[in-house]
# Entry
Amino acid sequence: MPTPRTSPEPNPGILQSLITLLPASHLDQHALETWICDVYLPGMLQTDTVQIVTAWRAASPGCGRRWIVLSEVQDLGMVGFGDGKHVGGGGLHAMLRTSDVFSGGVAVDEYVDIESRVLERVEVYGEEIQGGTADDVTTIIYAAMQPAPGGEGDLDAWYRDEHNEQMSKEPGYKRTTRYKPLFQTRNSGKGKPEGLDFVAFHQFGEGNKVGSEVEPLDPMTEWTKRCMAGCEKIDAAVYRKVKTLRGWMENIH
# Structure
């Protein structure tokens, strides 16, 4: 009897875009928000790859990464990145680089620094919902960490065996989703991408007590102190949700 053919399991993840005005740009933050919400978000959905896309603004005015866009993908195998080809549709390579927001038909790269990352999901802690980010999530803590060589196992165990549970006791907590990077790039001439190997998004809803800056949990355990001291770099910030769009493919699941 022939072996039944089975489809490969989907490989869920996100596309993370960190968007910042260039110092020499003549645009202001209002124009940047208009472009992100009215042009960039719909453009991501039109790639036929993304199911849900959300724009988040840093809670702290002093944060160097004022905007991040998180585009949720049910199967990263459909995404064309690097030298890979997109499966169906126009794909990320086909996104428009110009907009009426930018005068004279100048490409977005002349005004905006965009660092793009493809992240594969490795863990969900808390209530896992159908369809990606819940509508009731209003705030996220973005935490990226780069352990010293050899410290990867301890950092992963810290998340799984202690930190996630401790975070879940905070008011308004919904869930934590962790990722690992598959690919990253930065628009030409703006420096190298700076993504780290351990990426977590802690999601919170109404009633949360998350301030504008990331604060250590109380109590700060000995394991936490060891992991923090053992990291070569930590990038963390608080973001508030500005706008979410959902694609037609998300509505059929």
